[in-house]
Specification:
By secondary structure, the chain is an alpha/beta fold. Helix content is about 30%, strand content about 25%. It has a 7-stranded mixed sheet. The protein has a 5-stranded mixed sheet with strand order 8-9-10-11-14. A two-stranded antiparallel sheet has the order 12-13. β3 and β4 form a beta hairpin. α6 runs antiparallel to α7. The protein is globular. The structure holds zinc ion (2 copies). The site of one zinc ion (ZN) has 5 residues, from loops.
Amino acid sequence: MVEILPGIHQIDGVNANSYLVLENDGSLTLVDAGMAPGGKKILDYIKTTMSKQPSDVKTIVLTHSHIDHVRGAFSMKNATGAKVAIHEQDADYLSGKKKLPPPKGGMGFIFRMLSVFFRSPVVEPEIRLKDGDRVGKSLTVLHTPGHTPGSISLYDQERKLVFVGDAITNRGGKLQGPPGQFTLDLLQAYASIGKISAIDFEVLLSGHGDPVKSGGTQKVRELSSSLNKKTEMTKP
Ligand SMILES: [Zn+2]
Ligand SMILES: [Zn+2]
C-alpha cells in the first residue's frame, strides 16, 4: 500500500488493486473494493496511515462488477456508510438481479465454477452512473464498455490521471488490452481504449499491475493503434 502521488493511494488487494482518493474537502473516495471480504486492510490503512476515519469515505465507486473488484464492497459500505456507485449497465449484476454472461470457451466453465465458490454478498448501489457523470468530488465517468457492459474509467482532469479498471492492464510495464478470456466484447473493448486515448492525462491506474506515472495518453495511443492493426489483420 503506497501513496502514488499526493492524495492518491494504491491498495494492492488479493487480486485487483483498489485506490483511495483524498478529495479537496478532506473526504475520501474509494475506487474499487477488492477481493478481500472484510476490507480490513483498507480500513486499517485509512486509520493508521492516513489518520482518517472510515466514515470519511463518502463514495465507493466500482469500475465494473467483476468479483475481484466488488467483493469487498458490502463490508466497506457497512463499515463506512459510503454510497456505492457503479455504471447503470453493471448495476444489476452487483445487486444480483442479473447474472453476468459467462465468457465463451473453456474459461466459461471455470468462471461458472468459481462463481459457485466465491459469491459476493449482493450490494444495491445507491448511484447508477452514466457517461459524463461526476462521482466523488473530482472524478468524471467515462463509459468504456467491452470488458463488461458497464465498465467505466474515471478521469481526474485536475490531477491528469485516469483509473481504467480492467479496460487496460499493465503487465511488467507493458500496457495491454483487457484479459481476453474474461472480456465479453473484445472489439468494443478496443474501441473503449481508443476513447481513453482521446483524453489528456499523465498517470494511468489499472485494476491490475503497476501505475503508469507519466506519458499516459501517448502510451494508450500506441496500445490503441497496435490493437487496431491486429484487428485489421484478422479481418477476412
Ligand atoms: Zn474484470
Ligand atoms: Zn480485474
